[in-house]
Write a structure and sequence with these properties.
Elements: E1 2-6, E2 13-17, E3 27-37, H1 42-46, E4 62-69, E5 81-84, H2 95-98, E6 122-126, E7 130-132, H3 139-142, H4 148-157, E8 166-170, H5 176-185, E9 189-194, H6 200-206, E10 210-213, H7 219-225, E11 229-234, H8 239-243, E12 249-257, H9 269-273, E13 278-281, H10 287-300, E14 306-310, H11 314-322, E15 329-333
Parallel strand pairs: 8-9, 8-11, 9-10, 11-12, 12-13, 14-15
Antiparallel strand pairs: 1-2, 3-4, 3-6, 3-15, 4-5, 5-7
The structure holds zinc ion (2 copies).
């Protein structure tokens, strides 16, 4: 089969023929129809994830058709359309797993990092890492929802917000453009925060009721004029920008971070303790969370804005994502 792989740390993608995998007893074999490119795939390129082995095929926003199932798989059938996200399987035996907290499995696997992912014509995945895909969504539209989509959808729905609450989305990019749609469709008073007016019209089209341009407005003051945010979902990985919106939180407001950056943010205890405010993070979710994300997206007609590339052009496609040129997610088709 054809696959795009990284052969060594720091290397470019090489598209070549490798052996088609076959499913182990607890795995399914998926014929890939679409695979989104995520910024976290750069962990594979740069060798930035502990224990990564080469060669490795990245890709954790995968949609395809089940072609074969292992002998111990009864919940997936040949011909079914399925997806695989970041959470690539769990052990069922560690303490978090015994508590049903699979996303925090101590032996958890990550698709496209622990094993080969979806930048290929085929991939295998453990049966517990597989989500069903509703027929209303095209494979290319569904793919980015398996990482970008689930991350913001699952963060929003578990944050404690209630219909009508002021919810601000900081950053309008791969995650943010989906978060604005979800927040609107969950019934929130949705505020988009960006660094210029370039995305103002788009933000309104996506469902933002208010738009704050931090280039000429103070986001915290503007949020306070709206009563203070119950939730600020930080989706752009710029720590200065995240730090600058903390004072926009209202009583019991929460700054929830889903943007993956190692840069520290700056928050003083004083900023949080008056008004019982908090700052927290959220990981993506399990395959069941993925399925919920896909079903909610189908029900509410939420779609990512995507650019499609053939697998052969993976290096060009990856550059567009890395240079922040893509509007907003890039999807590979084998
Ligand atoms: Zn991702
Ligand atoms: Zn476990």
């Amino acid at each position: 089969m054809k696959a795009a792989l990284i052969e060594e740390k720091g290397g470019d993608f090489i598209v070549k023929e490798i052996d088609k995998p076959s499913p182990a007893e607890n795995e399914v074999l998926i014929k890939v129809e679409a695979c989104g490119i995520c910024h976290s795939d750069n962990f594979v390129k740069e060798g930035a994830f502990p224990g990564i082995e080469y060669p490795r095929v990245p890709g954790h926003e995968v949609v395809g058709i089940v072609e074969e199932v292992g002998s111990n798989v009864s919940n997936w059938k040949t011909g079914q359309r399925v997806g695989v996200g970041w959470h690539g399987g769990h052990c069922f035996e560690c303490e978090p797993c015994r508590r049903g907290d699979f996303i925090n499995c101590q032996n958890g696997k990550i698709s496209g990092i622990s094993y080969d992912g979806g930048y290929a014509e085929y991939m295998t995945a453990p049966k517990e890492a597989v989500a069903g895909v509703p027929e209303e969504l095209s494979s290319a539209d569904a793919a980015p929802l398996l990482c970008a989509g689930i991350t913001v959808y699952n963060a929003l729905r578990n944050s404690g917000i209630k219909a009508g609450d002021v919810v601000a989305v900081q950053g309008i990019g791969g995650l943010g453009h989906l978060a604005i749609q979800y927040a609107n469709k969950m019934g929130m008073r949705t505020i988009a925060i960006s660094t210029s007016d370039n995305k103002k019209e788009l933000a309104k089209e996506l469902g933002a009721h208010h738009f704050i341009n931090t280039g000429n407005q103070n986001a915290s003051e503007e949020l306070q004029k709206l009563g203070g945010a119950k939730l600020i979902l930080a989706t752009a990985p710029h720590s200065d920008a995240i730090s600058s919106v903390v004072d926009g939180l209202g009583i019991d407001g929460k700054l929830l971070m889903v943007a993956a950056t190692g840069e520290p943010i700056e928050v003083s205890p004083m900023q949080l303790l008056m008004g019982r405010k908090s700052a927290a993070g959220w990981p993506s979710g399990t395959a069941m969370d993925s399925e919920d994300t896909l079903n909610f997206s189908a029900m509410t007609d939420t779609k990512p804005m995507i650019e499609e590339y053939p697998l052969e052009k993976v290096n060009e496609a990856f550059e567009r994502m890395m240079n922040n040129k893509a509007r907003f997610r890039v999807v590979l088709k084998p």
